[in-house]
Amino acid sequence: MARILYYDDIFKAEMLVRSWKRTTNLLIGVTISRLCPEYKLRLLRSWLSHERFTAIDRLVFPAVMAAWAQYEYLKLNDPDEREKLKSSLMGGDNAAFWAQHYEQQPIDLEQTVGRLPYREACPLLPSLDCRLGERAEPHLVVQIGSSSGREISWLAARQIQHQYLGIDLYPEAYVYCHGRMGDRS
After folding, report:
1. Residues 6 or more apart whose Cβ sits within 8 Å of residue 93
2. Tell me, what's the pLDDT at 143?
3. Residue 114, by phi and psi: left (phi above 0), alpha (psi -120 to 50) or beta?
4. pLDDT tens across 84-116, in order?
């Protein structure tokens, strides 16, 4: 006799498959990370330059990144230790590469980020733009972690009565920004 599948059965089966895929992905990532730590670091440090990845790199990168995030990064409770770990992936040449990549994305307040318009997903920039527009007297605006200088230069072009200063932890990002903006940086 044939068994009738109900929605609950299908839903439970889908959840089981998703759980199995997630577990398998983490297992692959942990295995590669433990057996080949240098390969793991190379993959993670080149996270933004997928064009340099081989076919195998593209296949295993999501698993290695998921394992790193869950078992190394999120395992740390100290925010300073997390920042050090993140810096090992984002610093150096990667900082300049990230700044270049980030700069190429135009600021469009109506562009969607996930399901929300940018202005709702990242409300600080439009809010700051509005507040600065209301101020006639000059203010100094400091952005910590300015990377390419994209946001602060966007504000500077719109609200010219103020002064702007961008600061970044990574010297390579500063050098990239300074090279792009010249005396304005």
Report:
1. 172
2. 92
3. left
4. 888 877 777 778 877 887 788 888 888 888 888
Residues 11-20 have pLDDT tens digits of 777 778 788 8
Q: d(Cα 86, Cα 160) in Å, to the nearest integer?
A: 35
Alpha carbon distance 65, 71 (integer Å): 10
Q: What region does 162 belong to: left with phi over 0, alpha with psi -120 to 50, or beta?
A: beta
| Angstrom distance (rounded) from CA 171 to CA 179 | 12
CA distance 105 to 96: 15
Cα 25 from chain centroid? 21
| C-alpha dihedral (118, 62, 98, 122), degrees to nearest 10 | 20
The alpha-carbon radius of gyration of the chain (Å, integer) is 22
pLDDT for residue 92: 74
